[in-house]
Design goal:
Alpha-Beta Plaits; four-stranded mixed β-sheet; 6 helices; 20% helix; binds iron/sulfur cluster
Length: 177
Amino acid sequence: MRYAMAVDTRKCVGCSDCVVACQTENSVPVGYCRDWVVEVTDGTYPQLQTEIRSERCNQCGNAPCVRCCPTGSSHYADGGIVLVKPRRCIGCGACITSCPYDARYPHPDGYVDKCTFCIHLIKRGQQPSCVAVCPTRCIYFGDMDDPNSEVSRVLSHRRYKSLIPEAGTDPYLYFLL
Ligand code: SF4
Ligand code: SF4
Protein backbone atom coordinates (compact mmCIF):
# COMPACT_ATOMS: atom_id res chain seq x y z
CA MET A 1 0.00 0.00 0.00
CA ARG A 2 1.45 3.35 -1.05
CA TYR A 3 -0.88 6.33 -1.22
CA ALA A 4 -0.29 8.96 -3.89
CA MET A 5 -2.07 11.87 -5.50
CA ALA A 6 -2.01 13.32 -9.01
CA VAL A 7 -3.32 16.78 -9.93
CA ASP A 8 -4.28 17.51 -13.53
CA THR A 9 -2.83 20.93 -14.39
CA ARG A 10 -4.97 20.97 -17.56
CA LYS A 11 -8.22 20.67 -15.63
CA CYS A 12 -7.49 22.73 -12.51
CA VAL A 13 -9.19 26.14 -12.80
CA GLY A 14 -7.77 27.56 -9.58
CA CYS A 15 -11.14 27.93 -7.84
CA SER A 16 -9.62 27.01 -4.42
CA ASP A 17 -12.57 24.79 -3.49
CA CYS A 18 -9.94 22.22 -2.42
CA VAL A 19 -8.40 24.73 -0.04
CA VAL A 20 -11.73 25.66 1.57
CA ALA A 21 -12.83 22.00 1.81
CA CYS A 22 -9.55 21.08 3.51
CA GLN A 23 -9.75 23.98 5.96
CA THR A 24 -13.30 22.97 6.89
CA GLU A 25 -12.68 19.21 7.11
CA ASN A 26 -9.50 19.56 9.14
CA SER A 27 -10.39 22.61 11.26
CA VAL A 28 -7.39 24.51 9.91
CA PRO A 29 -7.08 27.80 11.83
CA VAL A 30 -7.90 31.04 10.01
CA GLY A 31 -4.84 32.40 8.22
CA TYR A 32 -3.24 28.97 7.63
CA CYS A 33 -3.71 26.22 5.07
CA ARG A 34 -2.78 22.59 4.44
CA ASP A 35 -3.19 22.96 0.66
CA TRP A 36 -2.98 25.96 -1.64
CA VAL A 37 -3.20 26.94 -5.32
CA VAL A 38 -0.22 28.13 -7.35
CA GLU A 39 -0.44 29.81 -10.75
CA VAL A 40 2.74 29.96 -12.85
CA THR A 41 2.96 31.77 -16.19
CA ASP A 42 5.86 30.99 -18.53
CA GLY A 43 6.94 32.29 -21.92
CA THR A 44 7.16 35.62 -23.74
CA TYR A 45 4.11 37.60 -24.84
CA PRO A 46 2.05 36.61 -26.81
CA GLN A 47 3.33 33.01 -26.44
CA LEU A 48 2.32 32.55 -22.80
CA GLN A 49 1.38 29.40 -20.94
CA THR A 50 -0.20 29.26 -17.50
CA GLU A 51 -0.07 26.24 -15.21
CA ILE A 52 -2.43 26.05 -12.23
CA ARG A 53 -1.54 23.62 -9.45
CA SER A 54 -3.30 22.59 -6.27
CA GLU A 55 -0.33 21.88 -3.98
CA ARG A 56 0.10 20.23 -0.57
CA CYS A 57 2.52 17.98 1.31
CA ASN A 58 4.18 15.52 -1.08
CA GLN A 59 4.06 12.66 1.47
CA CYS A 60 7.73 12.10 0.63
CA GLY A 61 9.26 8.63 0.78
CA ASN A 62 12.56 10.18 1.87
CA ALA A 63 11.20 12.98 4.02
CA PRO A 64 13.64 15.45 5.57
CA CYS A 65 10.89 16.51 7.99
CA VAL A 66 10.83 13.00 9.46
CA ARG A 67 14.62 12.73 9.50
CA CYS A 68 15.19 15.99 11.35
CA CYS A 69 12.39 15.71 13.94
CA PRO A 70 14.12 15.33 17.33
CA THR A 71 11.14 13.78 19.13
CA GLY A 72 9.78 11.26 16.62
CA SER A 73 6.61 13.34 16.31
CA SER A 74 6.93 13.43 12.52
CA HIS A 75 6.69 9.87 11.29
CA TYR A 76 5.62 7.56 8.46
CA ALA A 77 2.15 6.13 8.91
CA ASP A 78 0.08 3.62 6.93
CA GLY A 79 0.57 3.80 3.19
CA GLY A 80 3.60 6.08 3.49
CA ILE A 81 1.61 9.09 4.72
CA VAL A 82 3.76 11.44 6.78
CA LEU A 83 2.00 12.49 9.98
CA VAL A 84 2.70 14.56 13.09
CA LYS A 85 1.86 13.38 16.60
CA PRO A 86 0.78 16.68 18.16
CA ARG A 87 1.47 15.54 21.73
CA ARG A 88 5.08 14.64 20.91
CA CYS A 89 5.73 17.85 18.98
CA ILE A 90 7.69 20.52 20.88
CA GLY A 91 7.17 23.13 18.17
CA CYS A 92 10.88 23.53 17.42
CA GLY A 93 10.13 24.13 13.73
CA ALA A 94 13.00 22.01 12.38
CA CYS A 95 10.56 20.22 10.08
CA ILE A 96 9.18 23.51 8.72
CA THR A 97 12.71 24.63 7.84
CA SER A 98 13.66 21.28 6.28
CA CYS A 99 10.64 20.93 3.97
CA PRO A 100 11.53 22.07 0.43
CA TYR A 101 7.82 22.45 -0.38
CA ASP A 102 6.90 24.76 2.49
CA ALA A 103 4.12 22.31 3.31
CA ARG A 104 3.96 22.76 7.10
CA TYR A 105 2.72 25.52 9.35
CA PRO A 106 2.93 26.24 13.09
CA HIS A 107 -0.48 25.53 14.59
CA PRO A 108 -1.47 28.13 17.21
CA ASP A 109 -1.92 25.27 19.72
CA GLY A 110 1.87 24.74 19.75
CA TYR A 111 2.48 21.90 17.33
CA VAL A 112 3.24 21.73 13.63
CA ASP A 113 0.48 20.75 11.21
CA LYS A 114 0.27 19.68 7.57
CA CYS A 115 -1.76 17.69 5.04
CA THR A 116 -2.57 14.13 6.10
CA PHE A 117 -4.21 13.05 2.82
CA CYS A 118 -7.29 13.10 5.13
CA ILE A 119 -6.24 9.75 6.56
CA HIS A 120 -9.30 9.75 8.84
CA LEU A 121 -11.53 9.75 5.74
CA ILE A 122 -9.42 7.17 3.87
CA LYS A 123 -9.81 4.79 6.79
CA ARG A 124 -13.58 5.08 6.36
CA GLY A 125 -13.29 4.28 2.65
CA GLN A 126 -13.77 7.90 1.59
CA GLN A 127 -11.65 10.20 -0.57
CA PRO A 128 -9.57 13.09 0.83
CA SER A 129 -11.77 16.19 1.08
CA CYS A 130 -9.91 18.07 -1.69
CA VAL A 131 -10.46 15.15 -4.07
CA ALA A 132 -14.14 14.80 -3.21
CA VAL A 133 -15.01 18.47 -3.60
CA CYS A 134 -13.08 19.39 -6.77
CA PRO A 135 -15.67 20.58 -9.33
CA THR A 136 -13.48 19.65 -12.33
CA ARG A 137 -12.47 16.27 -10.87
CA CYS A 138 -8.82 17.13 -11.45
CA ILE A 139 -7.36 15.37 -8.38
CA TYR A 140 -6.74 11.63 -8.53
CA PHE A 141 -5.96 9.65 -5.40
CA GLY A 142 -5.28 6.04 -4.47
CA ASP A 143 -2.85 3.22 -3.92
CA MET A 144 0.18 3.25 -6.23
CA ASP A 145 0.64 -0.47 -5.55
CA ASP A 146 -2.81 -1.19 -7.03
CA PRO A 147 -2.68 -0.93 -10.85
CA ASN A 148 -6.45 -0.38 -10.91
CA SER A 149 -6.51 2.59 -8.55
CA GLU A 150 -7.50 5.97 -10.01
CA VAL A 151 -4.03 7.40 -9.49
CA SER A 152 -2.24 4.39 -11.02
CA ARG A 153 -4.50 4.41 -14.05
CA VAL A 154 -4.10 8.11 -14.81
CA LEU A 155 -0.32 7.98 -14.30
CA SER A 156 -0.10 5.01 -16.68
CA HIS A 157 -1.24 7.00 -19.70
CA ARG A 158 -0.42 10.67 -18.94
CA ARG A 159 2.82 12.64 -18.81
CA TYR A 160 3.55 13.97 -15.35
CA LYS A 161 6.15 15.64 -13.17
CA SER A 162 6.90 16.09 -9.50
CA LEU A 163 8.17 19.32 -7.97
CA ILE A 164 11.79 20.00 -6.98
CA PRO A 165 12.99 16.46 -7.83
CA GLU A 166 16.56 17.62 -7.21
CA ALA A 167 15.75 17.77 -3.48
CA GLY A 168 15.76 13.95 -3.50
CA THR A 169 12.70 13.62 -1.26
CA ASP A 170 10.93 10.95 -3.33
CA PRO A 171 7.62 12.83 -3.55
CA TYR A 172 4.26 11.09 -4.06
CA LEU A 173 2.37 14.14 -5.31
CA TYR A 174 2.34 14.30 -9.12
CA PHE A 175 1.24 16.92 -11.60
CA LEU A 176 -0.25 15.77 -14.89
CA LEU A 177 0.96 17.80 -17.88
FE1 SF4 B 1 7.74 16.42 4.83
FE2 SF4 B 1 7.57 18.55 3.24
FE3 SF4 B 1 7.88 16.09 2.16
FE4 SF4 B 1 5.57 16.78 3.32
S1 SF4 B 1 6.47 17.72 1.46
S2 SF4 B 1 6.70 14.83 3.63
S3 SF4 B 1 6.23 18.10 4.99
S4 SF4 B 1 9.36 17.19 3.44
FE1 SF4 C 1 9.28 17.42 15.28
FE2 SF4 C 1 7.47 19.19 16.16
FE3 SF4 C 1 10.07 19.91 15.97
FE4 SF4 C 1 8.55 19.51 13.78
S1 SF4 C 1 8.27 21.12 15.32
S2 SF4 C 1 10.66 18.78 14.12
S3 SF4 C 1 7.22 17.81 14.40
S4 SF4 C 1 9.21 18.35 17.32
